[in-house]
Amino acid sequence: MEAPTPLLRGLLMICVAFFACMGAAHFFGLKIPVLFVYWDPPFYAYQDKIIAFTLVTYMALFFGAARHRVMVPYALVSIWATVIGLALVNLSDALAQVLNGGGTLAYWLITAAFGGLAAILTLIWVRDAKAR
């Protein structure tokens, strides 16, 4: 199978490392903004363990995409679904309830960062596909 271009492969591997850091932060309860999208609302520790384990699937998917170009669209779908999901959470009544009138700007900034990452990966993949 054909690998993605070096630039795309490198960015996908950076994503793998980021998801590993994010998973470790969730597993150990290290509430670090960006590694924890929603670091300040109340939470249950078992939820963070579940998130940590699900991040392993992101790592595997993005690692596979970094090695095999045919997998890149699946990684892109997953990150765009994450961006949409985060936006829906940011708009939700459930989040507003736990925040007790607190703002969501920081969450929107993190969501926008994920959206920017998704856009960059998508644009590079499209550019590379046209060049082939």
Automatic annotation (TrEMBL):
Keyword annotations of the record? Membrane, Transmembrane, Transmembrane helix
Q: The organism sits in which domain of life?
A: Bacteria
Membrane-crossing residue ranges in chain numbering: 7-30, 50-67, 74-99, 105-126
- Kindly provide the name given to this protein in its UniProt entry: Uncharacterized protein
Taxonomy, top ranks, is: Bacteria, Pseudomonadati, Pseudomonadota, Alphaproteobacteria, Rhodobacterales
